[in-house]
């Protein structure tokens, strides 16, 4: 009986060497775009206290109710693999006294997250997100800046058919009053909505706008809209965000039904999509979360941010140009001297690979050619360690006295003059 073939856990994926060029290309673009705008990189722990997410994300959300990977440590404390990035970053902001820094504090991240949700194209139980947060600023220009930065990243990486939906959820007070009106509307129509929506009318009525059920969607088409309930300050904030997007030439659709899956959002919300992804078109999004710091026990602190799925972006982007590995020098030989040459070459700043597969001389030279190495050093395996250095472009081959001379010649060839 054969042994069971081990595989990665269901709902996860390996990132193979041939997939790295596109991931690195996206990360390079994101880093340049965000850091040029003053955002600094931050990393938070892979797991946090479960309370951070139950208080920050909200107990009524699908994330907290159904999707978190939670466990107890040896001390009995409840910990959770992070399902999203904003609550941990706000926790770090409060914990490390970042309110003392010039505001807003601009941060960005590229990290893995974990949700026990149904796997589909570009959505896994362990997934990577690129995100940015600006904490400590109320100006609508902060909202617009973040939207424009994500738009720039998506454009530069070659995402096709980009769409942008924006809306406003108003302040907590506005949404609370609207919530009661929406609950009353849903109660009046509860016979026509799905069982899932009916069960959650009091818990999270706004999620009814996201329902796939045909009956629910028909009911929600006539539901009251939060955008119609905004007070003057909320409406003006939303207008100023749109004015800046117009000035930046970033197109968008105002969507009065747009809700986000996290309870902490206030005022601006937005979502980027790509038609190239089909029905599940979301790439990423975010919004303003002016009440999150207080939910976590901190002082009132405004914030706004977004997160975008790395796998989703790469699925919808143009393939990145494949960059061949650079090899300045290929070393052939099994002696200690051959090994020392490879090590010293790398210390001198050269990209050096050594023949380690036991190929014949002919096979090793073919491998050097596949790598595009401009120089090949063949080191004798005898005690003298004679080195023959070959220029693969001209075919010229000379005997070189020692390791230092080899390195000098290769460096000169890489930097002529």
Roughly what fraction of the amino acids lie in strands? 15-25%
Instruction: Please tell me how large the radius of gyration is.
Output: 28 Å
The helical percent reads: 25-40%
How many H/I helical runs? 14
Structural write-up:
36% of the residues lie in helices and 20% in strands. It has helices spanning 20-36, 50-56, 62-67, 86-95, 140-156, 172-188, 195-199, 214-220, 232-248, 292-295, 310-316, 336-347, 361-371, 403-414, and strands spanning 40-41, 47-49, 70-72, 78-81, 105-114, 126-135, 162-168, 253-254, 266-274, 282-288, 303-309, 329-332, 352-354, 375-379, 387-391, 397-400. The radius of gyration is 28 Å and the shape is elongated. The model has no long low-confidence stretch (mean pLDDT 89).
Which properties best describe this structure?
20% strand, five-stranded mixed β-sheet, alpha+beta, 36% helix, 14 helices, 417 residues, eight-stranded mixed β-sheet, single chain
Give a quick summary of the entry.
The chain is α+β, with helices and mostly antiparallel strands and 417 residues long.
Would you spell out the secondary-structure blueprint of this structure?
Layout: H1 20-36, E1 40-41, E2 47-49, H2 50-56, H3 62-67, E3 70-72, E4 78-81, H4 86-95, E5 105-114, E6 126-135, H5 140-156, E7 162-168, H6 172-188, H7 195-199, H8 214-220, H9 232-248, E8 253-254, E9 266-274, E10 282-288, H10 292-295, E11 303-309, H11 310-316, E12 329-332, H12 336-347, E13 352-354, H13 361-371, E14 375-379, E15 387-391, E16 397-400, H14 403-414
Parallel strand pairs: 1-5, 7-8, 12-13, 12-14
Antiparallel strand pairs: 2-4, 3-4, 5-6, 6-11, 7-9, 9-10, 10-11, 14-15, 15-16
Helix pairs in contact: 1-5, 5-9, 12-14
